[in-house]
C-alpha cells in the first residue's frame, strides 16, 4: 500500500484498496479521514436529531434509539461520527452484534448478557469494581437459575480465552481478575453462538424470571456508572451502540423490536440499536413502541415530486450524483484512475445513491481494468459497463420471479407495499427509500436495467394500455 493518509490514490491498485468499505479493512481513523457529510443530499437530519437527544439527556438518564436504513447505506460510518462527537461526554461502548450473538436468531436476553459483558469489561479496564454485596447477590441468582458453578465456568472459559476476560493490573500491581459473572456471561454467549439447543435452553432459563434479570442488569449498570462517575465526573453515562443488528432477517427483527420492544427499552442506559429498514415498514407500526427512530435514506440522485403520478422515470439530480461521486473523489484522484469522470457518474447513476453498491461497482470496474488480457492503467467505459452488468446479474440471481410484477408497481407508483414482500424487497435492496421533504420508493437502478424487469413492465403495459 503506497497511498499516504494525506494523498489520493493515483493508481488502480491503491484505488481498489481505499474503496473497500469492509470494517475489517477500514480502520476508524481512515473512516474519519474519508468521511463526507451527505446530509444535504440525503435530505435528512437523522444524525443531528440523534445528537440532540444525547445533548438533552441529563447525567444518568436513559433512552432507546433505533437507527435504520438500507444495509450498506453508510450507517456504520455515521455511527463513527456520532461516537467521535460524543466521546468526551459519554463512555461509548461500541458493540458489533455479529461477534457477540447470532444476528440471524437474536433475542432480547442476548442483549442483556452482552450489556453485562461489556460494562464489566470497561470497569476492569479502569481498575474499577462492582459493589461486592450487589455482585454476590446477582451471581447467586445466576448460579441458581443456570446450575453453573465456579468450577464449571472456569473450565469452559479457560478453553475459550475471550479477550474481554483479560485481567487488568491494579494500582497496587495486583491483577483485577474477571468475576464469576463475567466468565459466566462469556460462556453463555459462546454457547448461544455455537449451539441451537443450548441457545434455546439458555434463553428459556433466563426468561423464566425476566423481572429479576432486568432488575439485576439495571442495578449493575447503575452501580457501574456510579463508580465511573466518581472517576470521570464529566461523563453523562454509558452509551451503548449496537451495530449490525440490521443484518437480522425480517422475522427475527420483527420478533426482537416488536414482540420484545418493552424489554429492550427497560435497560437503564442510552442505547442506539441499528435495525433493518424493514422494521419501519411493518404494519405493527414501530412508532407505537419506539419514539426515537431515525432513518438514513439513500443519497437522493433524482429530482422527483411525489405529486407526479405519470409513472415516468425521474430525472437525475446533478447535485446528488456529485455527492455520491464525492465518496470516491475523497479517496481517489479521478483523473489518474478513470479515463473520464463520466464513467464515475455512470456508476453513480447505477448505484441509486447506495454507498456500498457504489463502492462495490467502482472496485469491480478497477478489477476488470487490471485483470484483462491487456492490463489497463485507467478505468474505461468498458470497465464501467462490466461492473454495472455484474451488479445487475447479482440481483437477477436473488430476486424471486414473483417479485417482478410488484417491482413494476413500485417503479410506477413510487411506493413499496406495506407487507412481508415489501419488507423483503427493502431488505435485499431491490427497492430503495428516499426521504426528506417527502418519502418515496424506487427500484434499484440495476434491477430496472434487467431484461426480466423490462419484460414484466412490458407485460403490465400491454395488460393496462
Structure commentary:
Helix 10 (180-194) packs across helix 11. Helix content is 54%, strand content 10%. Mean pLDDT is 88; it is low at 1-5. The protein has 23 helices and 11 strands. The chain has helices spanning 12-18, 28-33, 39-42, 46-56, 75-86, 97-100, 108-125, 132-146, 150-160, 180-194, 196-207, 210-231, 250-259, 261-265, 318-329, 334-337, 341-351, 355-371, 381-398, 404-413, 420-427, 445-449, 451-463; strands spanning 64-69, 90-96, 168-169, 175-176, 237-243, 271-276, 292-296, 302-303, 315-316, 431-434, 440-443. The protein is α/β, with parallel strands linked by helices. It has a 5-stranded parallel beta sheet with strand order 2-5-6-1-7, sandwiched between helices.
Amino acid at each position: 500500500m503506497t497511498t499516504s493518509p494525506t494523498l489520493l490514490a493515483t493508481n488502480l491498485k491503491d484505488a481498489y484498496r481505499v474503496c473497500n468499505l469492509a470494517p475489517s479493512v477500514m480502520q476508524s481513523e481512515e473512516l474519519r479521514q474519508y468521511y463526507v457529510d451527505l446530509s444535504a443530499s440525503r435530505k435528512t437530519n437523522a444524525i443531528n436529531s440523534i445528537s440532540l437527544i444525547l445533548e438533552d439527556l441529563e447525567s444518568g438518564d436513559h433512552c432507546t434509539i433505533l437507527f435504520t436504513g438500507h444495509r450498506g447505506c453508510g450507517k456504520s460510518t455515521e455511527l463513527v461520527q456520532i461516537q467521535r462527537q460524543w466521546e468526551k461526554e459519554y463512555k461509548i461502548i461500541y458493540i458489533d452484534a455479529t461477534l457477540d450473538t447470532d444476528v440471524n436468531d437474536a433475542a432480547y436476553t442476548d442483549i442483556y448478557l452482552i450489556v453485562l459483558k461489556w460494562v464489566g469489561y470497561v470497569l476492569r479496564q479502569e481498575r474499577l469494581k462492582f459493589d461486592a454485596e450487589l455482585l454476590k447477590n446477582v451471581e447467586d441468582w445466576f448460579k441458581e437459575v443456570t446450575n453453573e458453578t465456579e468450577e464449571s465456568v472456569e473450565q469452559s472459559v479457560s478453553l475459550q480465552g475471550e479477550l474481554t476476560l483479560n485481567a487488568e493490573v491494579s494500582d497496587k500491581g495486583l491483577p483485577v481478575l474477571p468475576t464469576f459473572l463475567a466468565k459466566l456471561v462469556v460462556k453463555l454467549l459462546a454457547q448461544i453462538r455455537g449451539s441451537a439447543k443450548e441457545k434455546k435452553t439458555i434463553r428459556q432459563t433466563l426468561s423464566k424470571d425476566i423481572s429479576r434479570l432486568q432488575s439485576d442488569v439495571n442495578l449493575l449498570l447503575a452501580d457501574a456508572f456510579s463508580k465511573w462517575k466518581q472517576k470521570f465526573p464529566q461523563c453523562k453515562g454509558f452509551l451503548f451502540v449496537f451495530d449490525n443488528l440490521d443484518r437480522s432477517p425480517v422475522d427475527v427483527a420483527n420478533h426482537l423490536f416488536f414482540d420484545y420492544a418493552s424489554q429492550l427499552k427497560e435497560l437503564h442506559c442510552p442505547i442506539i440499536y441499528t435495525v433493518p429498514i424493514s422494521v419501519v415498514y411493518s404494519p405493527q407500526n414501530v412508532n407505537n413502541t419506539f419514539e426515537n427512530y431515525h432513518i438514513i435514506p439513500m443519497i437522493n440522485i433524482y429530482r422527483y415530486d411525489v405529486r407526479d403520478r405519470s409513472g415516468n422515470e425521474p430525472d437525475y439530480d446533478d447535485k446528488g450524483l456529485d455527492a455520491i461521486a464525492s465518496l470516491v473523489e475523497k479517496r481517489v484522484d479521478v483523473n489518474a484512475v478513470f479515463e473520464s469522470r463520466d464513467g464515475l457518474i455512470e456508476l453513480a447513476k447505477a448505484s441509486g445513491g447506495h454507498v456500498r453498491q457504489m463502492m462495490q461497482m467502482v472496485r469491480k470496474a478497477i478489477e476488470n481494468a487490471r485483470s484483462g488480457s491487456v492490463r489497463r492503467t485507467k478505468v474505461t467505459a468498458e470497465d464501467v459497463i462490466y461492473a454495472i452488468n455484474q451488479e445487475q446479474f447479482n440481483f437477477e440471481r436473488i430476486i424471486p420471479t414473483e417479485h417482478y410484477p410488484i417491482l413494476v408497481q413500485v417503479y410506477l407508483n413510487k411506493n413499496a407495499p406495506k407487507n412481508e414482500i415489501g419488507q423483503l424487497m427493502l431488505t435485499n435492496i431491490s427497492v430503495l427509500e428516499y426521504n426528506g421533504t417527502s418519502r418515496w420508493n424506487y427500484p434499484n437502478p440495476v434491477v430496472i436495467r434487467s431484461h426480466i424487469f423490462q419484460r414484466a413492465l412490458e407485460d403490465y403495459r400491454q395488460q393496462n394500455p
